[in-house]
Structures are given as structure tokens and as C-alpha cells.
# Entry
Amino acid sequence: MDRVTSNDFATYDYMEICAEESKLSFLVDCCKCFGWRLDENPGSEQSYRGRTRMKRDRKIINKAELTRLQRNFESCAEEIDKMEKAMVSRAQMAAIALGVIGTVFIALSVFAVTADPPHIVLTVLYAIPGFAGWISPYFVFRKVAASQREKLLPLIEQKREEIDVLCEKGNRLTQS
# Structure
């Protein structure tokens, strides 16, 4: 029977990363800078539907500093995610609001034409902004999304630079 020497024994901290599959590779690469590595043990799911499991030696040198850097990284990654969602959320809200207003005008137009006696002039007057409210959301969405993108892309790039600095510091600590 093989004996395990004290040098071979190690305990690990485990972490599971859950993210969109398109971002998972980036997150795994960054976590490696903080001393984490993929858990290759049987039963650990590797990259299954946006999830992966990682491990790190519990007795890693500079663990407190690596944990602080990792928390800063996670905060920056969350901020980037929120900004990416904000690029389209305001545009979606504006387009939906415009579509609802258009629908209200179309409903008023229908009520005007079905009244007894029918009010044809009101029907036409309500139908014009109604159809405009149905057609314009596409263009409003594109314009608002473009302006949001223009405003937020420099901030996202700034956060990515911050992540690069954090990963460099973490990588230096794991190499020492």
C-alpha cells in the first residue's frame, strides 16, 4: 500500500463560476491569475451550461491579498455586466413605451369608428399617431441604444483596464 507523504497532502478551496457561456472563458482565465485552477476530479462538471468548478490550494501564499484582488475583479466584472445590460435596457423601455402609446391611439381609433354614429375624422386623427407609435419604436430603439453604447463603451473599457491591472497583480503574487 502506498503511503502518502506530508509533501503530497494539500487541501483546497473550491469555487463554482456561473456565467453566460460567452463570458465563461474570460472569467476562468482571470480566476487563474488569483491562484485558481480547473477542478479535474471525477464528478466535477467542467464547463457545463455556463458553469465550471475551480480549486485553489488553501495554503497558498498571499491568500488574503489574492482574495482582495479577486473581490475587486468580481466587482469590476459585475459593473461591466450591468453596463452592457444598460446599453439596451433604456432603449427597450423607450421602444416599449412608444409602442404602448401607439396601441392606445389605435384603440381610440377603433372606438371612434365603432361608435354610433362612426366618427371617421376622429378615427383618422387617432390612427395617424397610432401607426407612428407602432412604426417608430424600431428607429427609437436603434438611436437610444447607439447613444447609450457611445456613452458606456469608454466606461466599460476603463473597467476592463482595471481588470487587467488586478489580474497582473494577482499573477505576480501567485508566481512569487
